[in-house]
Amino acid sequence: MSITTLITTTIDAVKGFLSVNGNVKQPDIQYHPDETKYRARTARRLAKNPDLPNAALPDGFPKQVEGPIVWEGKDWTHEDQWVYKLSDAQLAEIDSAVAHFKNLGKPMGYISRETFPLPTLSTTLKGLAGELYSGRGFFVLRTIPIEKYSREELAILYAGISSHVGSGRGRQDVTGAVISHIKDLSVSHAHVKGHTGNTAYTTDKQVFHTDIGDLIALIALETAAEGGTSKLSSAGRVYNELAATRPDLINTLTELWPFDSFGGDPGYTTKPLLFYEDGHMILQYTRRLFTGYGEQTRTPHIPPITEAQAEALDAIHFLAEKYALSLNFQKGDIQYINSLGLLHARDAFRDDSEHTRHLIRLWLRNDELAWRTPKPLEPNWRKLYSLGPHEQRFPLEPEVRKKDNRPRK
Questions:
Q1: Which residues form the TauD/TfdA-like domain (predicted)?
Q2: What is the mean pLDDT of residues 43-55?
Q3: Are the beta carbons of 178 and 169 closer than 8 angstroms?
Q4: 3-state SS record for 84-131
Q5: What is the DSSP string of 253-312?
Q6: 148 DSSP 8-state letter
Q7: What pLDDT digit, counting tens, does each position of 289-347 carry?
Q8: Which of 68, 227, 277, 291 is deepest in the core (most CB within 10 A)?
Q9: In this structure, are residues 306 and 228 in contact, taking their beta carbons and an 8 Å threshold?
Q10: Which helix (H) or strand (E) holds 226?
Q11: Alpha-carbon separation of residue 89 from 86, 92, 139 (angstroms)
């Protein structure tokens, strides 16, 4: 790294931790990326320091990463490459497993590979779980006959199948909920403060991001009347382009970033967005924590992000968009995603009286196959996957997630 680049990077990092009460303000950046602003910001920064593209990569970071999880959307030519279609015999196994668990009379937190037995499908799911960690990083199970089951039976079925993919279920809010309903809550929960602070609970476009944890599962109870296309993109492919063209932004992504807690205690926490751990490129971030969204505006009295960080956020999004794969999400599909190595997004959508988009999400981890968790993420992972069976809650109807605003020790 040249001395000019080193000085610029250091100044940017220092600015990021100055109070907004001083001379440094939050950059002109919003949740929805603006390509014109992004290009202008890039031009300004390069005009100020043309040496930025000559920066050295952070210690230990490779010039490029390889492997099956490093791909471009054009690499996939037909959905049969990632869709596994359940056979009648396998659907019968699932029916038997639902009945078996119900007969046990146990709370749903006790759903596991043992209590939801799938004699032959289990081997297939184990292989597909390997695809998440050692392969392309995603697959879709098609198709669960949704109308056949009660809402409780669907929760048992969904958690049961998923226990053969990842046995660890992550908490999704402070109440111990391990499933979350992803749908537009702007009408049914308009009276609840906070429901429009997360795009997941609106019809708005979700920009590229990752969820917390190892794996994401989504089952489609219903699709939208129009829109709502699910998109995936390889974090490794995004990394390779940035490493080749703007290594200074790789340095920026490995710095400490101020994550807004939106009224939590403390008001913000700090950690990097990018990690290289045991040969895996890991990206973990959600854009709204740096820009705000809806009624959750960026907290004014915490450190702003820097101009370099604003450029890095946009660079990730537009590169992810460039190399994205769009998935045809059908009613009854279950989508599984590696949230460490892939980014995901969703187009805006429109519901009508007959089609109201409704997904249910699980956060999972397969301890036998899991990648090593980067140390800065370990506290969150311990909290995420620490719920015992008796502490797990399965809300059968949509609700607004409840945050934990208790002081952190």
A1: 107-363
A2: 98
A3: yes
A4: EECCHHHHHHHHHHHHHHHHHCCCHHHCCCCCCCCCCHHHHHHHHHHH
A5: HTS-EEEE-SS-SSSEEEE-SEEEETTEEEE---THHHHEETTEEPPTTSPPPPHHHHHH
A6: G
A7: 999 998 889 998 999 999 999 999 999 999 999 999 999 899 999 999 999 999 999 99
A8: 291
A9: no
A10: strand 226-227
A11: 8, 5, 20
Three-class DSSP labels, 322-383? HCCEEECCCCCCEEEEECCCEEEEECCEECCCCCCCEEEEEEEECCCCCCCCCHHHHHHHHH
Residue 145 three-state SS: coil
The pair of structure tokens assigned to 98 is 């639902």
Residue type for position 105: G
- Rounded CA-CA distance 176/286 in Å is 22
Tokens describing residue 50: 């043309």
Structural domains present in the chain: 1-409 (3.60.130.10)
Residue 311 and residue 53 in contact, taking contact as beta carbons nearer than 8 Å: no
Angle, vertex CA 157, rays to CA 156 and CA 158, nearest 5:
95
| Structure tokens that stand for 339 in this block | 């949230």
pTM (two decimals): 0.91
> Angle, nearest 10°, between helix axes 307-322 and 3-15?
100
